[in-house]
Amino acid sequence: MKAIRYEGAGKMAVAESDKPKLSSSTDAILRVTTSGICGSDLHMYDGRTPLKKGTVVGHEIMGVIEEVGEAVRSIKEGDRVVLPFNIACGYCYNCIRGFTNSCLTMNPEKAHAAYGYAGMGPFGGGQAEFVLVPYADFNCLKLPGTPGDQWEDDFLLLSDVFPTGYHGAEMAAVTPGKSVAVLGGGPVGLLAAYSSVLKGAAEVYVIDRVPERLDKAKELGAIPVDFLKGDPVEQIFELRKKNKGIQGSLRPGEEKLKGVDCVVDAVGYQAQPDKERVPSAEKPTQPLENAARLVNPAGGIGVVGVYIAPDPGGRTEQEKQGIYPIPVAELFDKSVTIGFGQTPVKRYNEYLRDMIVAGRAKPSKIVSHRIHIEEAPDAYDKFRQRTQGYTKVLIKFGKLAA
Ligand code: NAD
Ligand code: ZN
Fold first, then answer.
1. pLDDT tens for each residue of 270-290
2. What is the pLDDT, as a whole number, of residue 402?
């Protein structure tokens, strides 16, 4: 089968790979129809997370079941399904409590597993014609419709970035009427903003520098803030100060609420410093510094942007170990609640699917490119540079690629 293989930093190659075979009676084999390239794949592409050369990558996967093991009960050949990027057993202490992002049994090295990803266990990825699905009953979400229909791209986004944006909003405690700032207007940030709109937030700001992404934020109902135009935190303070509706309702003391109730960090450690025009410049603490300044006292911060260690690209010994100076005193002083980490996709994916089916959510508005597998190496390069409008790239397989 054709697959995308990691061949070293900056090199993703289309290669012939062995088609996976059932290895346990609880497995299934999925014929992939669509697979996403994720901002998380870029950490490997940039050589920041050690991955064995030759590994098939891709963790945003949907398709049609080709074959199931004899113990699989709820899914059968021909079913259309999407997979959470987390691979989970369903029976460990954490899975039972709903933390499928911290499954204790699937990865001997750590408490989490995923398809085709560094440090996430020995599983093959889904930027390929076929993929092996462990514990298929637990890890497949059944979908209505047929491949290539009006929902195909919406459903693909249920594998990761839609639930991840939603999880960021959830950890930041977004509820109706709240004010929200999302740091980063990549696929995750855009869908955190969209999730905040769906949750009924009153104001949603999105900070980024890429014009196409800021335009998309506006289209999704958010207020774009360009960090190349000056300190984005001050820009948001200013926008709120100029808003007569906000200022006219303040009681004494509430002038201290200059910022927002909820902040989502959808950038992570590869952040650029504010006002810096060179896209390769990095300041890993920029998102959390801005979050600490932006969040109002007693507010919430959801960190879904990735922070990793070891990081061979870190500029100091501390950065290489993922240790960063962040304004802890300010966060304590403000009594902020913070959540971190990978998304437990399974907590949200069926509800978000049902919003898509009911016509209440259309996350595929963020998709910019639909490509054939042969175009993937070039798409990785353009997505990494965030140029030419490469916001979200989906690889199409089989009949959908024609
Ligand atoms: P992405 O990397 O393209 O998006 C990041 C965006 O942040 C870019 O548009 C970039 O211009 C912008 N940015 C850079 N510095 C900034 C700054 N200082 N302030 C504001 N914006 C800044 O892709 P993505 O797919 O949206 O991924 C975003 C992050 O989310 C990545 O770290 C990715 O690994 C992570 N992620 C986490 C999970 C999870 O489970 N927690 C799942 C998927 C992705
Ligand atoms: Zn992803």
1. 999 997 778 788 999 999 999
2. 81
For the segment 290-300, what is each residue's pLDDT rounded down to a tens digit? 999 999 999 99
276 and 286 together in one domain: yes
Tell how far the Cα of 393 is from the centroid of ligand 1, in angstroms: 14
Q: What is the pLDDT of residues 100-138, one digit of tens each?
A: 999 999 999 999 999 999 999 999 999 999 999 999 999
Residue 287 Cα: closest atom of ligand 1: 18
Tell which of 311, 340, 369 closes a domain. Answer: 340
For ligand 1, atom 29: residue with the closest CA: 305
Q: Which two tokens stand for residue 364?
A: 């595929």
d(CA 397, CA 402): 8
pLDDT > 90: percent of the chain: 98
* String of DSSP letters for 309-366: SS-TT-SSHHHHTT-----HHHHHHTT-EEEES---GGGTHHHHHHHHHTTS--GGGG
What is the residue range of 220's domain?
Answer: 161-340
Domain total in the chain:
2
pLDDT surpassing 80 at residue 163: yes
Residue 49 to residue 64: CA distance in whole angstroms: 31
Minimum-distance ligand to the CA of 42? 1
On whether both 257 and 277 belong to a single domain, the answer is yes
CATH number at 90 reads 3.90.180.10
What is the DSSP annotation of 44-64?
HHTT-S---TT-B---EEEEE
Domain stop point among 313, 340, 367:
340
Whether residues 181 and 125 fall in one domain: no
Q: Are residues 103 and 238 in the same domain?
A: no
Find the ligand nearest to 186 CA: 1
Can you give the pLDDT at residue 278?
80
Residues with CB under 6 A from ligand 1: 38-40, 42-43, 160-161, 164, 183-189, 207-210, 213, 227, 266-268, 271-272, 274, 286-287, 304-306, 342-343, 386
> Which amino acid makes up residue 56?
V
Report how far ligand 1's centroid is from the alpha carbon of 188 (Å). 6
| CA 165 to ligand 2 centroid distance, Å | 11
CA angle at residue 162 from 160 to 167, to 5 degrees? 90
Looking at residue 50, its pLDDT comes to: 86
Q: What is the CATH classification number for the domain harbouring 308? A: 3.40.50.720
Q: Specify whether 155 is located in the same domain as 38.
A: yes
